[in-house]
């Protein structure tokens, strides 16, 4: 895979770090559940509750991490995030009860949050100009492929059903995070740090962010787009099996189709789309494609259960993949360029809340609407996608105008 230009060794070191973390992410939840159920006497509900609690405790970290990134730069924070994840997996080896389980899961969740709250700032710092779009496209491909590989590895471990195999994979995962951190430390050089405020202190990124209405609106609009992303994993299994009566194996086929499409085609799709439209335009087209996906899924109720239904839904999954490939790189690149240089770490960390919010909201949204009617969730989410598509173009013009004027928004003076 040929990467766009970057400084020094970042062109290969950052992809290596992204790949390691993506595989670890793919392993994290499924491996955690299986491993903790094996080494403790806790029930599935008990393990799930402890993992959820550990994740919830880390939700406030992104803004703090972003503030640190603005002070010291993203490179050391990315390294700390990877080493923390390695420490979390090493703590897995000592888990024997609820307290040790919670502590191990908390450390791992903190490391994950620190890493993803800083790595996009590192990419933005290293990429040159318009290469940001290509970088974010490649990052999305690696994340999809790595997460898929992690899920496959978990399936192999489940087939082995061996505690020794589980421990070996936990140790290997910890080691890989250490190696990834060493790769970034040795081969990625820190970028130029912007000057501080006139009094010599770094700019107050959080206060600046809270006054930046266009960027806050971008986070809100992107949350609507991300609901469409999360909706795939939340809605498809229930809707396909219970709502349409399709065979259970079809769900695995559909999710594989989307994973392969995103992992192999994102860079090409992004490049072609960006030749024809702006980043906001690409995001808007992604929303339209998601709305088409929702409409296609809703219309599936008119088909009889059987091969025709499975083939039709497989085609619909390609619409989701096309939307994800069109929207993802453009959204990350727009968020990076719209952030002021001095506060970029804080801004990009806050942008991660558009993903976290979608993760929290989507299951409840689907459950409530599906309880009313099996087609209603698709109608509502499709409407949200179209709403976000209509909102993003004027918002992009506001963001780019403010950036060109050298200020965050009319309410915030230039640094």
Task: Identify the notable features of this structure and list them briefly.
mainly alpha; 0% strand; 415 residues; 16 helices; 80% helix
Description:
This protein has 415 residues and is mostly helical. 80% of the residues lie in helices and 0% in strands. It has 16 helices and no strands. Helix 7 (131-160) crosses helix 13. 49% of the residues are buried.
Outline the secondary-structure elements:
Layout: H1 10-39, H2 44-57, H3 61-72, H4 74-92, H5 98-116, H6 119-126, H7 131-160, H8 163-187, H9 205-210, H10 213-243, H11 249-274, H12 279-299, H13 307-338, H14 344-351, H15 353-372, H16 376-404
Helix pairs in contact: 1-2, 1-7, 1-8, 2-5, 3-4, 3-14, 4-5, 4-6, 4-8, 7-11, 7-13, 10-13, 10-15, 10-16, 11-13, 12-13, 12-16
């Amino acid at each position: 895979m040929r990467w766009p230009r970057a400084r020094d060794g970042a062109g290969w070191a950052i992809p290596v770090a992204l790949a390691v973390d993506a595989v670890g992410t793919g392993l994290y939840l499924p491996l955690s559940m299986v491993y903790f159920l094996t080494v403790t006497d806790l029930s599935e509900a008990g393990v799930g509750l402890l993992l959820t609690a550990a994740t919830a405790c880390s939700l406030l970290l992104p803004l703090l991490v972003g503030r640190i990134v603005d002070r010291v730069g993203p490179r050391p924070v990315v390294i700390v995030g990877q080493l923390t994840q390695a420490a979390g997996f090493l703590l897995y080896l000592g888990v024997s009860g609820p307290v040790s389980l919670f502590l191990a899961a908390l450390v791992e969740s903190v490391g994950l949050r620190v890493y993803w709250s800083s790595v996009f700032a590192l990419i933005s710092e290293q990429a040159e100009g318009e290469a940001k779009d290509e970088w974010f496209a490649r990052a999305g491909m690696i994340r999809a492929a790595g997460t898929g590989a992690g899920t496959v590895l978990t399936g192999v471990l489940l087939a082995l059903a061996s505690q020794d195999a589980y421990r070996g994979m936990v140790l290997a995962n910890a080691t890989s995070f250490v190696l990834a951190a060493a790769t970034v430390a040795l081969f990625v050089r820190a970028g130029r740090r912007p000057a501080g405020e006139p009094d010599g202190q770094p700019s107050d990124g959080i206060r600046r962010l809270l006054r930046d209405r266009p960027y806050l609106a971008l986070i809100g609009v992107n949350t609507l787009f991300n609901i469409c992303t999360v909706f795939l994993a939340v809605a498809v299994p229930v809707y396909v099996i219970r709502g349409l009566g399709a065979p259970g194996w079809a769900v695995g086929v559909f999710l594989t189709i989307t994973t392969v499409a995103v992992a192999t085609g994102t860079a090409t799709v992004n490049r072609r789309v960006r030749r024809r439209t702006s980043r906001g335009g690409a995001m808007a087209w992604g929303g339209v494609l998601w709305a088409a996906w929702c409409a296609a899924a809703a219309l599936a109720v008119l088909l009889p259960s059987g091969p025709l239904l499975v083939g039709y839904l497989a085609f619909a999954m390609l619409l989701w993949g096309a939307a994800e490939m069109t929207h993802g790189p453009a959204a990350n690149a727009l968020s990076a360029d719209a952030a002021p240089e001095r506060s970029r770490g804080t801004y990009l960390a806050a942008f991660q809340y558009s993903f976290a919010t979608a993760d929290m909201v989507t299951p409840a949204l689907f459950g409530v609407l599906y309880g009313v009617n099996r087609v209603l969730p698709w109608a509502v989410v499709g409407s949200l996608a179209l709403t976000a598509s209509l909102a993003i173009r004027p918002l992009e013009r506001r963001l780019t105008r403010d950036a060109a004027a050298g200020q965050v928004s009319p309410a915030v003076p230039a640094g």
